[in-house]
Amino acid sequence: MTIDTTSYAIPVARSVASLRAVIADWRKQGLKVGLVPTMGALHSGHLSLVDLAKTKVDRVVVSIFVNPTQFAPNEDFGAYPRTEAADAEKLAGHGDLIFAPSAAEMYHPGFSTTVSVAGVSAPLEGQFRPTHFAGVATVVAKLLIQALPDIACFGEKDWQQLAVIRRMAEDLDIPVEILGGAILREADGLAMSSRNVYLSEREREAAGQLNVILRETAAKVAAGTIIPEATSEGADRIRALGFDHVDYLEVRDAASLEIFPSGHPTAPARILVAAKIGRTRLIDNMPV
């Protein structure tokens, strides 16, 4: 149960036992604890989640773990950036502890349990990445149980993921408050993402217009345009930018992610998009 306090400016726990020992000590001091799960390659969006957690609790754990179970065989698990030293440098002054387990620590030999969340995991990303949310729900359930924080913060950029995690925590009676942090955007409105580094100069310019089309499509729906008409036009505009494929551009119920049968929002709504340009798949969303 050792903690690495020498490699970086922020201590690192690499085992569940070490993580729990630190948190137990914090609890003895009467401190509240927050958790920010990440896969590393940290940017300002991640740091904003740590800062959000710090407004609610006394100590914040940031987990860094590139989770293999949420990647399909044809996805970029091997290429996903792993920048632990740089991540630790960014976290200094923000978080209080990094939890950076190995895959063997998280998934011991013979591991055979999967957490799946019906309903909110089925549409949108669930159609294009059918194994993704089971991997997410499983690793997040493990992290919440390992740390048992008072709160856990997740970015609203992955809106469907946030909905899945909220449903999972509620259904399993995990006593953790799940908070969503606002999307941080670049100067042109592109949602911050670790995958943005893959964009070429031409692709990056086109990507900067994705949020504009999303916002204008949402405005049309809010003004009364029927949803299929507005989203079909929006998808055409995205493809005209040079995007190779639009997986979806849809308006859904913000909580349940169900469609609106009438073609008009009858509850708080969210517009969500996933589109691929070059080798980069971008997602974004915003309220309607």
SSE topology:
Elements (H helix, E strand, L loop, with lengths): L2 E2 L7 E2 L2 H13 L4 E6 L5 H11 L4 E6 L19 H8 L5 E3 L3 H4 L18 H4 L3 H16 L3 E5 L3 H13 L5 E5 L19 H7 L2 H13 L4 H14 L4 E9 L15 E9 L2 E8 L1
Parallel strand pairs: 2-5, 3-4, 3-6, 4-5, 6-7
Antiparallel strand pairs: 1-2, 8-9, 9-10
Notes on the protein architecture:
The structure is a single chain. With 288 residues, the chain is α/β, with parallel strands linked by helices. It has 2 domains: 179 residues, Rossmann fold (3-Layer(aba) Sandwich); 94 residues, Pantoate--beta-alanine Ligase, Chain: A,domain 2, CATH 3.30.1300.10. It contains 10 helices and 10 strands. Helix 2 links the parallel strand 3 and strand 4. Helix 6 crosses helix 7 and helix 9 runs antiparallel to helix 10. The protein is globular and about 60 Å long. 40% of the residues are buried.
How many domains is the backbone divided into?
2
Which structural class should the secondary elements be placed in?
A: alpha/beta
Largest sheet: 7 strands, mixed
If strands are numbered along the chain, what order do they take across the biggest sheet? 1-2-5-4-3-6-7
Q: Compute the average pLDDT.
A: 96
Order of helices and strands: EEHEHEHEHHHEHEHHHEEE
Shape designation:
globular
Radius of gyration: 19 Å
Which CATH architecture of the largest domain? 3-Layer(aba) Sandwich
CATH superfamily of the largest domain: HUPs
Number of DSSP helices? 10
* Text of the CATH class of the largest domain: Alpha Beta
- How much of the sequence lies in strands comes to 15-25%
Low-confidence stretches: none
The name CATH uses for the topology of the largest domain is: Rossmann fold
DSSP, total strands: 10
> Span between N and C termini?
48 Å
Helix content: 25-40%
Function: Catalyzes the condensation of pantoate with beta-alanine in an ATP-dependent reaction via a pantoyl-adenylate intermediate.
Subunit structure: Homodimer.
Binding site for beta-alanine: 70
Keywords: ATP-binding, Cytoplasm, Ligase, Nucleotide-binding, Pantothenate biosynthesis
